[in-house]
Amino acid sequence: MGGCFSKPKPVEVKVELSLLEKEKEVDGLSPNGKASPFADCRPNGALGHGSDDDSTPLPLYHKPRDYVEASVCHVKDLENGQMREVDLGSGRALLIKEHGEFSAMAHKCPHYGAPLVKGVLSKGHVRCPWHGACFNIATGDLEDFPGLDSLPIFQVRVEKDKVIIRANKQALLSQKRSKPMARCSAVINSSTGFSHVLIIGSGPAALVCAETLRQEGFTDRIVMCTMDRHPPYDRPKLSKSLECTAEQLKLRSMDFLQDHDIELLTEKEAVAIDVKTRSVTFEDGSRMEYRKLFIATGSKPKPMIFKGKDVKNVFHLRTPEDANSIARLANNKNAVIVGTSFVGMEVAAALTDKAHSVSVIGIETVPFKKALGEKVGKAIMKLFEVNRVKFYMLNEVSEMIGHHGQLKEVVLKSGKVLRADVCVIGAGSIPATGFLKQSGIHMDSKGFITVNKTMQTNADGVFAGGDVVVFPFPPRNNKKVNIPHWQMAHVHGRVAALSMMGRAAEIKTVPYFWSAMFGKTIRYAGYGDGFDDVIIQGDLDELRFVAFYTRSEEVVAVASMNYDPIVSRVAEVLGSGKTIKKRDVETGDISWLIHKGSQ
């Protein structure tokens, strides 16, 4: 690996021991016992210089030709609380006016490229209309997830009632920047069986934990181990874009990880943890000791009982290779999807323009009934039926029948036999925590790791986050819940990293997830578990609606299709600590929730 592991003098065992002794004197992980070198730094700097995804921040001084300057509007063109996307000739920027002050930054969300002008401006930040990420308008810093990158900001001044923006051309082009990160200062042999921070997993919780440590000035060794063969990638896209490669889906390149001294060990499966000796044992027989451990192993497919499990062409969608195989084998063939989870339904939608037939088997009356309610589930089910998807609801698989080992038929418990050349099982998941059974780390009856508000487990120095945990959720009076959202995993990773460094932070976010099918996106914010009523505004038949999920007299979650940015607006209201009453959304007038601040 690169970074600190490529330095010329490998450390001897006695030096490692001295590092261990030194850390025993420090409560928690600080960067070699010192304050973060970035604690008082503003990542953008006064001029708002930006940087590429895989590069260090731009130097403080540039040649004039590196910049573009343009008059973009009259000072009275924007009212307070308004945003406008403006053209600078070399690129576009987002101009914002709040409290009489102008600011400017990149106009696209670095997560999926959403136009931020259509988002929500509130209290010094802009919330993305698609997936809820938040950016500080003064610094461009990412304040809430999903995504990894912040935004470059640009100079704004007013001359003779004209608003003028001066921007770095490269920042306009990239539309994103990485926060400054520390490097590993310890000289360590890469084969040494010790890491100050050991991370198990390579999903968003794991990656954000590692990056946050570096952003906060942590200068000791970080090792991230994963069962996967690839660097971290955008797993939610697997079920939506079956033909994408790992390279196309990557969240960070190997060069980026090496440049920031985050060591990644692929195809490295943890099989046991000993919290007394602070060590992890791997399937290959190797062992690594840690000072702090972060467990973010995610979930695995829920086991199903049926005959014929040895038949080929039956998939659990886990990797880019799985997705590619499903797309290839379904081409002009018969595809069967078992389960109406979001993953299963997204795969069904993605296969309709490839497969000869697509059949979906579900145990409920309609898809998404538990998560979105029966009315919304029926409306989405109709969308699938219009697109030639056949449903077999209130049913389960009895047997997979193959010919020469290849799948040919799926037999249902009702007796129905479906022709099948490829089958995808999307019937839910369970936490990937089987290797922890003898560890002493506390888990609940379902196998979820229990953590406190700073993502700490009952074992000293052991933290956990993402799909594997139940954690105290403030909006539900700190009831311990499991929220297996991509966005929430990011939050867990950051909170865990700060906690490791003795900078306790609590979870202050509104859960947010999305699902895309047939070019239409469902957005959802809040925590609707146990909702007792659904208030629908809009037109379900036209799939232009907003659904408010209530418990007693309070709105606890919202879902929408073709109604942006209302989900981000509700997330903003809930995130501010305010409550939305059921009576407020029953009237049919929700104009007070629809943002009017963009032009």
Automatic annotation (TrEMBL):
Region span, Disordered: 23-59
User: What InterPro entries does its record include?
Assistant: FAD-oxidoreductase/Apoptosis, FAD/NAD-bd_sf, FAD/NAD-binding_dom, FAD/NAD-linked_Rdtase_dimer_sf, Reductase_C, Rieske_2Fe-2S, Rieske_2Fe-2S_sf
List, for all copies, the residue spans of the domain called Rieske: 70-165
What are the recorded Gene Ontology BP terms?
execution phase of apoptosis
Q: Is Iron-sulfur given among the entry's keywords? A: yes
What is an example of a GO molecular function annotated in this UniProt entry?
metal ion binding
**Source organism superkingdom:** Eukaryota
This protein's UniProt keywords: 2Fe-2S, FAD, Flavoprotein, Iron, Iron-sulfur, Metal-binding, Oxidoreductase
GO (cellular component) term, any one: mitochondrion
**Similarity remark:** Belongs to the FAD-dependent oxidoreductase family.
Name assigned to this protein: Apoptosis-inducing factor 3 isoform X1
What species was this sequence derived from? Cottoperca gobio (Frogmouth)
The organism's lineage is: Eukaryota, Metazoa, Chordata, Craniata, Vertebrata
